[in-house]
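User: quick one, fold this
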Amino acid sequence: MSSLPLSPLSLLRAARPSRGDLPWIAGYAIAFLVSHHVAAAWGGQGYYSLLYPAAGLRLALLWSRGPRLTLSITTAELVVQTANGVIVPGAPEWIAALLGVARPPLIYGLSVWAVRRLAPRLHSTLGVAPMPLALVSVVAPLAAALVSLPWALLRPELTGVHGLRQVIASLMNFMVGDLLGVMLVAPPLLWAAQGRFDRRAFVRGRRLLLAIAETIVVLGAAMALTALLTAIGLGAPVTPVLLAVAWVGLRFGRMAGWGAVLVVAVTILPFTVAPLPLAERFALHMSLASIVVVGYLAGSFADAQAQAKIDLTRRDRMLFQAERLKTLRAMSVAVIHEISQPLSTLALEASHLREIAAGADPEIAETAALIDRKAATLSQLVRRLRRFGGRAVDEPSALPVAALIDTVAALVAPEAKAARAVLSIAPVAPDLFVLGQEIELSQAIVNLVRNAFQAGDGRVFISVERGGDEVRIGIRNACVPGREARAGMGVGALVARAIVEAHGGTLTRSVDTSGSVHAMLTLPLTEGVR
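Assistant:
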């Protein structure tokens, strides 16, 4: 098992890009240069831009490829800004300019790392995809602006603004520009990087036409009402449009919500390119930012609720199946009990028949030996079934961990073969024993392995190591680049955690900087083998 990211310093240790990441970094540098020049159209005195698409490019790359690229992205931005003349090595205060350029990508990387680490621990809809992406889309720009506040107050001459009012205005413009850039640019890039679109966001046939018609009517009516209120001198209220976008997002999901947001943005942004008073331009962009955030969060929440409903339905089916299996077990125990005694008698008589037929005709002796073998095999099978379903199986006993892992491999082998998956198991020491119930522990590990198969690219690694008075069983999968993490309800993990904790152990789950999921199961070793 590789080490898990336990602190932000892990980003530094895993920051070296692989060869496969170099094209992404080079492409990002070019896209950053282009988008940086595009953002200048919405710039002004004391702030750079009220629409910063480069922030969306930055977040999309960090979210899809992992926060381990933080330092690489920071380096790319430093190179581009040096070429643009923003950073002039050797000039007065060039170190301050370098820190000003490096600060936003570093904060974005830390924000992505924090949200990815905390999302699996949230016991609410906020932890269900795609809500983590929606959260980091809001958190990252806010965090970048807040971190810049102390520096702007201590060294206002570096930002070209003076006084608390101008400093706050400059940082607010910075935050609004990043918010709009992230919300408008990052979602479609991530959908394209995944190579697929969420089919649940669309409906077909007549329902599709009704959905489009509803969206047009709701959004069109809201924009028309806003235009009317503006024309009669009541300002430019955004509440009707905000409510309309929220309605579309809640009704049809984040893709529809983003589409409605895009329509509003395309309507407003051309007017703010022209020279306008700073207060008026900032008010328009602030209103647009609130619409964008509400619309995308509403759509993400609707998708998360739909996914949670699917997972709850799946959990209910599993619980119902568990009840049926419990009843079937009771019936099987009764049947096995009835046939075990006759089969034992038959096995004894077959053994006796083989002994007395030893000196008879060879054909008779061979037939008697065959009957004896089959009867013994059948009797042994019934004893194993009786042990599996009887009360004795519920009693904990000393179990060799190597045999436990072999049982797990045998149970998941058919599923792995059907899914063309690969299960790699490291050698297990034969002197490791745990005190527990064999079938329950096997089921717990099988659940974790199945989750790993579903969440990764079909490769799962199991390792067992001794740590003091406990044994550690690790399950790790290989991530799929560009695939958005799907936490779901974690029904298999919940069952596994309950079983492990009932045996006095612990189960932890973490996601490293490359997106691989690590599950670590610890169990106490039994007395006498520690």
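User: anything notable?
Assistant: Strands lie at 397-400, 422-425, 433-436, 459-467, 470-477, 506-511, 517-524.
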